[in-house]
Amino acid sequence: xxxxxxxxxxxxxxxxxxxxxxxxxxxxxxxxxxxxxxxxxxxxxxxxxxxxxxxxxxxxxxx
Length: 63
Hints:
The chain is mainly beta. The chain has a domain at 26-63. 0% of the residues lie in helices and 27% in strands. It has no helices and four strands. It has strands spanning 30-31, 35-42, 46-49, 55-57. A hairpin with a 3-residue loop joins strand 1 and strand 2 (35-42). The termini are far apart. The relative contact order is 0.15.
């Protein structure tokens, strides 16, 4: 029975570390309506809250 061991699956790393940059600061802004804990999603030309649908337009940079 000891010879029939199952292969151990590797666990993926937590996705919560994608919220921080290398210096430890948060990458995205908090939603001003919902408060801390709810982030604004970055799109091409705007920042949007997923829960209350608050939106901030950002300036387009001409390159």
